[in-house]
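quick q for whoever's on today - can somebody do inverse folding on this one?? i tried earlier but teh output was garbage lol. tokens:
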């Protein structure tokens, strides 16, 4: 009996030692990578925690600091007995919405499988997926399967189109400038804009999303809808300029030309519109896109007119008037205008199906005319896309003489003004102002004066006290509330 008991104890002790990572052979691992929210700044704290097969800390940890303002870190020759680690980072980062460094610190995590030399990038995706990945592994997924499924679910949450190549989140970097970089920048910008670049609110939101998606990869519909509205409010051109400028300061070039064309599908160019509620949604989506586009148009116009007194832009091709056909901003504003125009034309086409929905074509037309005014100002004779010549590609239609386009726009604006007056006087007045602008362009000064006088004589507007335009709203001819309050 003593012999049997002794043998049992020996076997039990041997089994415990075999299952315990502390008693297994050590592996030498070198870990390096970068932390990108935008990039974290030099001095940010990086902690590496060894995890066992259940993703619980073994008690072994390593500490270092960010090596530079690019977010780089490196920990060579670590002695690990497990193949899993958690990387936790806390520090200040570059905010791509404000174009400045964050006002307070943020913490981000990543879990990864390591061997040999491993590159681990820490970002919003690695942080959001952590709880979901652990849950999927408990349900029988391999580590890579869990990571890829969690990433796909997060992309779906942020309306990212399918068809992207498979990638692990810790391999994604803003510096690569590929489709996943675009997705990362878009998600990061959405969360920043949603929280007003307030790090306490951002931390709370990240926690809420990661907890919500843990069980089924989804968040509650109200939050997803709010995120969708926020995505539509992002000024992608400003985000791209901010992130490019930051990396340029750090001696790096990033290749972003767009963040939303790659993955955002908030308002399809051919929306299915059958009932009035569908028209309201399509119109709201168009307002958001039109707002972003127009903001960028006036920014470029101000650059070209040299009215922006900021030395950051003094060497910009728009500021120096050294533009070429390959200029990214030129291509972006051109493509953005025609995205808005194609959606407008779909609303025009489908709104004619019934008397109840016909009103939407009149609501859209003043903005449609403004888009063509912008295109004519920047590019001269435009590609005139309208409901009678719509096709998938704008280049299918030859350029039209700008005067012919303007006369057609004015004719339709006059019809819209008749329908809008008394129902939506602000939109009607936007239509009058657009007739005046187009009339000035073709030197019909009498018509321009008549429509401007109609706006003035309505006495609906007056000059606001300095700084109160957005509070009083009596100086604004046209404005739209977009996104969550």
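ok took a stab at it. sequence:
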């Amino acid at each position: 009996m003593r012999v049997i008991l002794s043998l049992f104890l020996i076997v039990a002790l041997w089994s415990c030692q075999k299952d315990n990572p502390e008693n297994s052979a050590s592996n030498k691992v070198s870990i390096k990578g970068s932390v990108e929210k935008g990039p974290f700044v030099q001095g940010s704290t990086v902690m590496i925690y060894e995890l066992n097969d259940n993703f619980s800390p073994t008690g072994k940890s390593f500490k270092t600091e960010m090596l530079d303002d690019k977010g780089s870190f490196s920990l060579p020759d670590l002695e690990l007995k497990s193949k899993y680690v958690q990387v936790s980072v806390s520090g200040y980062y570059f905010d791509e919405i404000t174009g400045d460094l964050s006002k307070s610190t943020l913490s981000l995590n990543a879990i990864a499988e390591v061997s040999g030399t491993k590159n681990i990038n820490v970002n919003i995706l690695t942080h959001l997926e952590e709880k979901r990945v652990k849950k999927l592994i408990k349900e029988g997924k391999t580590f890579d399967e869990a990571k890829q499924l969690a990433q796909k679910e997060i992309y779906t949450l942020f309306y990212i189109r399918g068809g992207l190549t498979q990638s692990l989140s810790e391999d994604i970097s803003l510096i690569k400038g590929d489709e996943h970089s675009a997705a990362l920048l878009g998600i990061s910008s959405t969360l920043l804009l949603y929280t007003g670049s307030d790090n306490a609110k951002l931390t709370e939101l990240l926690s809420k999303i990661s907890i919500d998606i843990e069980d089924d990869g989804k968040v509650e519909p109200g939050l997803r809808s709010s995120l969708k509205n926020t995505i539509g409010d992002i000024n992608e051109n400003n985000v791209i300029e901010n992130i490019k400028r930051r990396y340029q300061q750090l001696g790096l070039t990033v290749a972003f030309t767009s963040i939303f064309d790659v993955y955002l599908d908030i308002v399809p160019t051919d929306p299915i519109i059958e009932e009035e509620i569908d028209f309201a949604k399509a119109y709201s989506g168009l307002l958001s896109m039109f707002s972003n586009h127009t903001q960028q148009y006036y920014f470029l116009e101000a650059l070209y007119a040299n009215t922006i007194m900021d030395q950051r832009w003094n060497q910009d091709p728009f500021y120096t008037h050294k533009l070429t056909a390959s200029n990214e901003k030129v291509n972006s504003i051109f493509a953005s205008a025609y995205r808005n125009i194609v959606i407008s034309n779909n609303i025009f086409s489908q709104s004619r199906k019934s008397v109840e929905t016909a009103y939407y074509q009149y609501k859209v037309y003043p903005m449609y005319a403004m888009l063509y005014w912008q295109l004519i100002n920047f590019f001269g004779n435009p590609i005139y896309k309208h409901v009678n010549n719509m096709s998938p590609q704008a280049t299918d239609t030859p350029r039209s003489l700008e005067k012919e386009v303007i006369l057609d726009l004015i004719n339709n604006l006059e019809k819209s003004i008749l329908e809008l007056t008394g129902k939506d006087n602000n939109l009607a007045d936007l239509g009058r102002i657009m007739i005046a602008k187009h009339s000035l362009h073709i030197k019909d000064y009498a018509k321009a004066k008549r429509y401007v006088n109609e706006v003035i004589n309505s006495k609906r507007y007056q000059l606001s006290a300095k700084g109160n335009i957005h509070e009083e709203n009596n100086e604004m001819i046209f404005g739209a509330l977009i996104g969550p309050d």
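fwiw The mean pLDDT is 82. also The longest helix spans residues 276-304. so keep that in mind when u check it
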